[in-house]
Amino acid sequence: MVELPVPSSERTLALGEKTETFVTFWLGEFYFGLPISEVVEINRKLEITPVPLAPAYIRGIVNLRGQVLTAIDLARRIGLDGENAAEYNLIVRDEDEDKVSLLVERIGDILEVPVESIEEPPEKIEGMERRFVRWVCQLPERLLVILHTRELFQESG
């Protein structure tokens, strides 16, 4: 199991400023985040057992201390092109407390972001399906794309 990174201090927050905290990670050149409340743990390369006839974005299942979880290739799920070298299993849960392993390339920081800098996503997002994007946040040197966990768990229609 990988320890969660120490919070990033990209800028000093004002005393009493409302913030949201995200676990961040990379898929290709994209920088993503998930609310920290939805992340259970991070593991490096759990063994994946393929599942026949599963959708293309489902890599298979993983055994996490006796609990069987679906392993989702996050890049494929959200519509990113290209093959990613998934190194980490980001274990997340949805509102119903169901857990899933999201396969990501690289883990970033724990990032505390001022609420007023979090915005609705634009209508068109180049390179991925918009329905998976909950919010965006322009950081000083890059854009943080905050994913919508509930949509990731939904069946494709």
Automatic annotation (TrEMBL):
Domain CheW-like: 19-157
Gene Ontology terms describing biological process: chemotaxis; signal transduction
Any Pfam family: CheW
The organism's place on the tree of life at top rank: Bacteria
UniProt xrefs under InterPro entries: CheW, CheW-like_dom_sf, CheW-lke_dom
SUPFAM superfamilies: CheW-like
UniProt GO cellular component terms: cytosol
Name of the featured protein: Chemotaxis protein CheW
